[in-house]
Design brief:
Length: 219
């Protein structure tokens, strides 16, 4: 059994029931998502890809915020995509949002969308859930348009928060197969160097979240 198939089955099992109340609960601790959407600012007619789109919550808000852009979402969980489809249709943005099932770490996973390059690629609390997260970052950078941007928000290492809070949070996250990536900043720095890109990185909420924007520089 391939790794992507194993991951798909795991995510389906984790979110088979959670998807129905996922957005109601996650809004209290997936901090920085709305900031990412606000900072995205795609160009008119731009194409935006979310790798690991889950319930479609971010895609709906982004499509409402940027009515002149086109949005695409990829997720490995069929269960999550079914919920995303319903949420997108309910919001009335299905004419500008397309979904596809696939592995975010697969550089060819978005080929079925028929889009050669994306102006924005974003990861919202997904890299901490993807076992081969470095490959997922590389895949996103590989389909980025010239002068495009990658936006990332995810769990940080909680450095400036109480130790008891960090231990409790990490233990709880582990039960959902979530692993905050200690090497995220260094991996983004290495990716920026390989791509000749500029990286803006900061910690939000006393280290609760890592927030980054990688801008591809035109050759």
């Amino acid at each position: 059994m391939s790794g992507s198939v194993e991951t798909a089955r795991l995510m389906d099992s984790v979110y088979r029931n959670q998807r129905y109340f996922y957005d109601l609960t996650r809004k209290y601790y997936l901090l920085g998502r709305d900031r990412l959407i606000s900072d995205m600012q795609p160009p008119r007619g731009g194409k935006v890809l979310e790798l690991g789109c889950g319930t479609g919550r971010n895609l709906v808000l982004a499509a409402q915020a940027y009515p002149e852009a086109r949005f695409y979402g990829l997720d490995i969980s069929r269960n999550m995509l079914e919920t995303a489809e319903k949420n997108i249709k309910k919001a009335g943005v299905e004419d500008r949002v397309s979904l596809i099932e696939g592995d975010a770490a697969d550089p060819f996973a978005t080929e079925g969308l028929g889009v050669p390059a994306f102006d924005r690629v974003f990861y919202s609390y997904t890299l901490s859930m993807i076992p081969v997260w470095r490959e997922a970052l590389a895949a996103g950078s590989g389909c980025l348009a010239e002068e495009g941007r990658i936006h990332v928000v995810d769990f940080g290492q909680q450095e400036r928060l109480p130790v008891w809070f960090r231990k409790a949070l990490f233990k709880w996250l582990k039960s959902f197969h979530v692993s905050p990536r200690r090497e995220l900043k260094s991996e983004l720095e290495a990716l920026a160097k390989r791509k000749g890109a500029c990286l803006e990185y900061r910690q939000l909420y006393r280290g609760y979240a890592d927030y980054a924007v990688l801008t591809k520089v035109q050759n």
